[in-house]
Amino acid sequence: MNLHEKEFKISLPRIVIGLFCSVLICIAVIVAYDYSVSVVGLFVLICFLLIILPIFLLKDIFHPFIILATSTLLAIIDFLNKDLIGSQYPNYIIVYSLMVFICWYLFVYLGYLLASRETIKITANKATLPKINNPIKISIVILSTVLLGFVYSMSIMGGFQGMLNAMTNTTVAYSGFGYLRQVVGLGGIAALLLLYGGYKKTSMLILIGTGVMLTFFGGRANVILGTVLPYLMLYHYKVRRFKLWQLSLLGGIGLIFVEAIGVLRKASQSHFSIDSMWGLITNAASATSRANTVPLLIESLLNGNVDFQYGKPLINIIYAPIPRSIWDNKPEIIDGTVLIAYELTGSTSYGMPAGPYGEAFFNFGWIGVILMGFLTGFIVRRVYSKFVVKKIENAGGIMGLVFYVLIIQSVFSIFSTSAQAKILWVVGIFTLVYFLDFVFGIRLAKSRKPSQAFSNRVNETILNSNK
Fold this sequence. Notes:
Largest sheet: none
Distance between the termini: 60 Å
Low-confidence stretches: 267-273
Helix content: over 70%
Shape: globular
């Protein structure tokens, strides 16, 4: 069976709608530039079309390219907004940055399509991952750990007020305690396991509670993309398919949430206001910092102020899983975003995300953009094929989906230390989940033995009395 045939739906109505939307985007960009589009504006328009056009040919509303578009569209909107209000960087640097983005995206497509040419056989009785039999008990264990982690976080931060104050600079406040955010984030996995077990309402309550607790850590992306989005994906695949208008409504709510948390993180602001939908979008786009970080990084590399890394950050995954509180001599800079911030500003108190395309250029220049983009697309396609395209309608197949929704965003940044650490974290949690399921299974089997023996004696007595 060729999975490529099931993934895309090329029809005349979809092509017409795609072309119509492309025309609308072109008109919107032209109007935004007051009918005098700059060179940067033309490249921004190319990026928009490159991201959006393939979406109209996809059948799955949560296809990997649609997931990727949620972040890359915000990055390009940030470039557009910065160009409209006046960027601090020369036009050729902005254009150069967008060319890096376009090149990376094209080779992601190429790697994905070449991987799609293979015919993959998946039988209906073969699960991608083993099923679990005790999701509710495992969830209780995980939630207990989450609550303990949150209480401990409050104790070291000085209560709720201390955690609110720490939101203005979480990198410094949680230095050496970054694992606490990961521990509290386990609540999202508990919600997924409850949804897997069929406890929809309970899973939603756990999801909301986890989101509230994670908000105190100041991580907007961690709440929306790391917790809510995986839940929505699993709900879509397992329970009920979402409609486009429903996702649009949820996206609007997400933008409001991002704006509200952004206000809380800025100590100088004490009010929350929404001027317009475009204001919400540009504020969310500005939170990505792509239009600042990528041009500054590329300008510094081209001018020789910063050296290419030639793959040195790729070995940082060896150190990443070890908490700094355990290893005092752990290298100070592990995450790629912090490394970029250090190289550009000399500070290690925060990170400067450049996206997978920026980090690829930071390592090997154009060769890195081409090679890493191609390999990223190839890997994403194989992961999507294994866990989603031929989804198995049984418990084992659903556990594969749980694993998939937790890692797919990280797979797009597979050469980033933080993404690699996230995947290893998920693998470790799944190992723990299966271990707990094994332990609960043994206890259940032992508890059944006495009752089974008693039942056998009763049956023997009845048979003997009837003789």
